[in-house]
Amino acid sequence: MRLGLPALVCFFSFVWQSECAPPTCYSRALGLSKEVMTLLDKIHTYHRTKTCAEILPPIFLDVHNSCVTAKLRDFLYVVLNHPNQYCRERPRMVLLKRKIQNLYNIITRICYRDLVFFTDDCEAIDTGHSSPYYAEDRLQLLQEER
Where are its TM segments located (predicted)? Predict the structure, then answer.
């Protein structure tokens, strides 16, 4: 009976570890984009970094949008070259810089050709509102109904 409990605990720990799948490129990019958006929200609301966030352009990350790489590159440039030295040294701004660099590297290098982009609506990344995209067959149906 003494050996039974440790063996049972050991067995269940192996079962738990075997059910865990390693993160894929897609899941890592999706999770990191959510982390960046959460951190940006904190930076915009926290009293010590609110003034730093005034210079940051609005961005709504969507890893399914093909414009995300260009927008991330531009956003990273703004964060790296922030005009205020105080803001560049703030821990949350440093963390934001690291997360955006990681996300940009994952999308452009590590997951290159693994991610599938469903839209190319660059305005959606700036505004957060995606305009509907109609395929050619849907457009033809809309024109025929009129």
Answer: none
